[in-house]
């Protein structure tokens, strides 16, 4: 398991804008008062869906899979981890393993270890805040399952010390973009979907 050196633990290596690929999108600017109020209203409306939330999380594996699929949608592209964070992940835990079978846990284990090696509390808070900015649009569209997954993943991302489905999918997408930009001979074309 990856154990950071003390100087790595203290390392504040990037500004907020360098943690994701949000440059040039609506997420690049901080939320203004109107947006913050819309997020609060959406969170309040979501509290009224407690029964749906309890039903949704009754099956944790299905909820995890739903989250991975949700966060792979193009709408979340601006939150993919930046090349700078992906390079830090690779420096910490090495290159991703190539797996032959979807049942092989090596890639999922690599992702968990890699995500935990770069997701310090400041990065987690920032990513969770950015994710919550999606809440109003999903609540307004009454896409309750998606809104519940967004809210729960934002909470787990900001407060936990785990690789939430959101963090995992942002890392997978960041790795795919990073290796896709390399020359074909150097690219890892077998990056699997996390399990």
What's the main sheet like? Answer: none
Number of helices in the DSSP assignment? 10
**Average pLDDT across residues?**
87
Share of β-strand residues: under 5%
How many structural units, i.e. domains? 1
How many strands in all? 0
Poorly predicted tracts of residues: 4-14
Please sum up the structure shown:
57% of the residues lie in helices and 0% in strands.
Q: If you had to describe this structure to a student in words, what would you say it looks like?
A:
- The protein is globular and about 45 Å long.
- It is an all-alpha fold and 195 residues long.
- It has helices at residues 6-9, 33-47, 50-56, 60-70, 83-93, 106-118, 121-132, 135-140, 144-159, 165-180.
- The protein is built from ten helices and no strands.
- The chain has one domain (16-21, 32-180).
